[in-house]
Amino acid sequence: MKLFEYAKLMRLDRPIGIWLLLWPALWALWIAGDGRPDERVFVIFVVGTVLARSAGCVINDFADRRVDPHVRRTADRPLARGSVSTAEALVLFTLLGASALVLVLPLNRPTQLLALAGGVVTVIYPFLKRFFPLPQAWLGVAFAWSVPMAFAAHTGTVPVVAWVLFAGALCWIVAYDTIYAMVDRDDDLRIGVRSSAILFGRADTVAIGALHLTALLLLAGAGQLARLGRWFYLGLLVAALLAAHQQWRIRTREPQTCFRAFLDNNWFGCAVFVGIALDYLFR
Questions:
Q1: Which residues, 6+ apart, have CB-to-CB distance to 98 below 8 Å?
Q2: Helix axis angle, 230-250 relative to 265-281, nearest 10°?
Q3: SS (H, E, C) 44-101
Q4: What's the maximum distance between 2 C-alpha atoms anywhere in the chain?
Q5: CATH 3.40.50.720 fits 2-281, yes or no
């Protein structure tokens, strides 16, 4: 059925991307809302995350429609197989993008402007892989952009704590997307697609470890600025242990174990959020 193919194009059958996009938004919503985020803002951000991720997947597959058939992991995608046309994909992307922008209309002007900028970043990302050596950094900006948006939605401004939290999320995202890129490195080298895994080469695991460590330090700094306590730091400790376990998984650079390490980042994001939520709950 066509609807099933559209759902696959939006990656609704693989919700890991939704969670990875949602965790930084939830971190920011809880801190910006002092532990009690505005209900309307919360719903808008959750629904918007699903729409934004779906739109991003569609435009990514449109940009990669001639590349995906030559990569083992992506050869079965709808555009690669021809089960969805390019015209259908563009219409679907337009509908999803427009819906996401309409969703932020009830929010204040700073949030609307940030949402528009985030949409531009998302559209540009898939096309960078042809020439930009570190596209994962651009993806990090796109995936972490909900952090300043969440603060703007609650306060009308983007304070220092928001940018520190944004930087921490950015480093974490580059770390896990580099692990993801390690899965496709051989195929990407063959077809000429750029990635951080190719850029870092044999220093890939060291770079990922450094990125995880930097992310944890920046998150700790954001916690200091937000005056979070022991529950938050306990969550960070769990996240640090998960990052260490990922280092152990990727040491052989075997694609399947790298992919499992990538999936483990869902628990990293969850651990940080649980720490934040519990810290506010038990005050």
A1: none
A2: 170
A3: HHHHHHHHHHHHHHHHHHHHCCCCHHHCCCCCCCHHHHCCCCHHHHHHHHHHHHHHHH
A4: 55
A5: no
Structure tokens at 169: 């999320």
Per-residue pLDDT of the chain (283 residues; tens, 9 = 90+): 678 898 998 998 889 999 999 999 999 999 999 999 999 999 999 999 999 999 999 998 888 888 778 777 778 888 888 888 999 999 999 999 999 989 999 999 999 999 999 999 988 888 887 778 899 999 999 999 999 999 999 999 999 999 999 999 999 999 999 999 999 888 888 887 888 999 999 999 999 999 999 999 999 999 999 999 999 999 999 999 999 999 999 999 999 999 999 999 999 999 999 999 999 999 8
The radius of gyration of the chain from alpha carbons, rounded to an integer in Å, stands at: 18
Per-domain residue ranges for the chain?
2-281
Residues recorded for the chain: 283
The residues near 43 (Cβ < 8 Å, ≥ 6 apart) are: none
